[in-house]
Amino acid sequence: MQLGTRRLALPLIQGGMGVGISLGNLAGSVAKEGGMGVISTANIGFREGDFWQNAKQANSRALAAEIAKAKAIAHGAGLVAINAMVATADYANAVKTAVSAGVDAIISGAGLPMELPMLADGADVLLAPIVSSGRAASVICRSWQMHYQRLPNFVVLEGSEAGGHLGFSRKELDDGSAKPLSVLLADVLNAVAAFGKIPVFVAGGISDGAQICHYINEGAAGAQIATRFIATEECDASDGYKEVFLHAESSDICLVNSPVGMPGRALFTPLVKKLAQRETFPPTQCVNCLVPCNPAKTPYCITRALIEAAKGNFEEGLFFCGAHAGGAKKLVTVKTLIDELMQPWREL
Question: What CATH number was assigned to the domain covering residues 2-236+327-346?
């Protein structure tokens, strides 16, 4: 599959997962098998010794190092991408750092990435917005075309069953009124068709090869899958983090409110229970990571909660997940998982 100046052998993107869940090892391992491996830029420097004092510099160092690591593992196969959230204060710096480090693609959501082409500064890098509607896709395409004379190289459509931050209202998620992914796909395909042939990858609740083939038959270029890659040997999270998912059941999945200002999907942990009971956990340290967040008013620090999760701290961590988490009961290699996911597609 041709994406701009790059070629992707498999119709598969490994979704970005932060903080510290999809870094260079996972992304590089996915790319090595011919897919697109994605590094999450969200506070990627949390392991650096000066993170809480110099978050911007720590994040830049770590991001460049993780991209280099992923590229070395991939050894020229697949594509190495980043996922950069528009809502983060470090967004522009993350994009520029990734471009300088030679990343193949930048996937951007949690807000409309209207200035992404400017931040990429004409570099030979694929650019892709994450959208949840045809309207959002149309607005971005029109804006990029008008202001930067370019269009997205591909689009990622995230449906309501995705993990992490969601582009739907809490009401739509609670009452089930959010449109099904197939309906959204038809809407987005129709919207981008007005601008030419732009590949659309679907995401959100996709967990097997049959589903990938289903959406490809409906016009998608492929699929983005995140949660299933947690239960792999190469996932960058701690063994404790992986154990939480290996023991999770579908009944453990719930919706949470994030300081980003968007609802999210996560596992029901002691932290989530306390937040539901209106207990608050204001930041003891703050790196001003989110533009919408007011540290004086936020009920909890999402950075610290995600870092604790990455360490495997079940009591204090926030474990984002997709709607069908809980299916994996053992660790497998990335190669084994990708072979399983791609087998139905190879038989088409």
Answer: 3.20.20.70
